[in-house]
Write a structure and sequence with these properties.
Layout lengths: L11 H16 L3 H9 L7 E5 L11 H11 L3 E4 L4 H10 L4 E5 L4 E5 L5 E3 H14 L10 E5 L5 H10 L3 E5 L3 H9 L13 E3 L10 E4 L17 E3 L9 H6 L3 E3 L4 H11 L4
Parallel strand pairs: 1-2, 1-3, 6-7, 6-9, 7-8, 9-10, 10-11
Antiparallel strand pairs: 3-4, 4-5
Helix pairs in contact: 2-9, 3-9, 5-6, 5-9
The structure holds 1,4-dihydronicotinamide adenine dinucleotide (NAI), pyrrolysine and magnesium ion.
Protein name: Pyrrolysine biosynthesis protein PylD N-terminal domain-containing protein
Organism: Methanolapillus africanus
Length: about 270
């Protein structure tokens, strides 16, 4: 998994606030209302413990602080444990935490200690960034078309969401084996390609997309030929897959933030049902 750096998180607080406003403009729902509606859950004064983890590449500067900002920005009660790792887990439980957030190099999870619900960052991130596109009003209800670039652990759960909403999905991944797996509807976590709803993106076909989802660790993955004026790009991928030049040329609206949106999605995934 591509690991965040302290630099990635430098402007995270501003980015979360700006993206919350943009999502509200695009979908009519603030990020927390959107997540409540996705999972049909609600927050109920849960106490959220954030445990810094030293395993693997260790503590990432601004990581725990960014999680705490997210929790508090959306009106929840949170704290960072003074201890790390197992001692931090003990501290969280004995301090009365209801939910813990913790990440090593392979997994970032939210765990509800009372209900035992668990959520994974990659799945919840893919879901919420896809839901943002699905919940935007589409002028022509029949034209449910989306381009998905990057079919890894974040992009694949997004496909399930697009299929649930009845989208026709054009897909691209630099790894041709992965691309073929997804189009064939087999392989790791691949949703079945029901009724040929998932097809390979053909850059020579001249298709333009109002809605684009990107989840890769590479830059410049969004080609000019897929853009139209006012396209919306929903992208958890770091760095951004669209150059500044193309963003300005096509007036692209970009939903992108390095950590908070996915974290909020994880928290609502483990809250209790409404
Ligand atoms: P992954 O490694 O599972 O999947 C990435 C996919 O992108 C792979 O299938 C790879 O073949 C493909 N890819 C790489 N370069 C490409 C290119 N130039 N063109 C097209 N496809 C390309 O990674 P994962 O976990 O799905 O993460 C994707 C990105 O999302 C990473 O940048 C990661 O840091 C970021 N991320 C962001 C989060 C957020 O909250 N903003 C949360 C989780 C991940
Ligand atoms: C959750 C992010 C999104 C992108 N890459 C993922 C990542 O950076 N994971 C590693 C998180 C490690 C956190 C570190 C700490 O500070 O507690 N162990
Ligand atoms: Mg990218």
């Amino acid at each position: 998994m591509a690991l965040l750096t302290p630099d990635d998180l430098q402007n995270m607080t501003d980015a979360l606030v700006e993206n919350d406003n943009l999502v509200c403009t695009l979908t009519g729902l603030s990020l927390d209302r959107l997540c409540a509606d996705i999972y049909k859950t609600e927050k109920k004064n849960e106490k959220i413990a954030i445990i810094p983890v030293t395993a693997g590449c260790g503590i990432i500067g601004r990581f725990s602080e960014s999680l705490l900002f997210t929790v508090q920005h959306f009106g929840m009660d949170g704290f960072i444990t003074k201890n790390t790792d197992i001692a931090g887990f003990y501290e969280a439980v004995t301090s009365g935490a209801d939910i813990i957030l913790m990440a090593d190099d392979l997994a970032f999870v939210a765990y509800n200690l009372k209900s035992q619900k668990i959520a994974h960052n990659q799945i919840c991130t893919g879901r919420v960034y896809a839901e943002i596109l699905c919940r935007m009003p589409t002028p022509d209800a029949a034209a449910k078309e989306v381009l998905v670039i990057g079919l890894g652990k974040v992009g694949t759960p997004a496909l399930e969401t697009f299929l649930d909403y009845g989208y026709s999905i054009s897909v691209f991944d630099a790894d041709s084996r992965r691309l073929n797996e997804v189009v064939g509807g087999s392989g790791y976590r691949c949703p079945p390609n029901s009724s040929g709803k998932i097809k390979k993106y053909d850059p020579n076909a001249g298709c333009k997309f109002d809605k684009i989802f990107e989840a890769t660790p590479a830059a410049d993955t969004v080609p000019e030929c897929c853009l139209t004026n006012g396209s919306v790009l929903s992208t958890p991928g770091i760095p951004c897959g669209l150059s500044k030049t193309l963003q300005e040329k096509y007036n692209v609206k970009i939903v992108q933030e390095p950590l908070g949106i996915g974290t909020l999605s994880m928290l609502y995934a483990v809250f209790d049902k409404k």
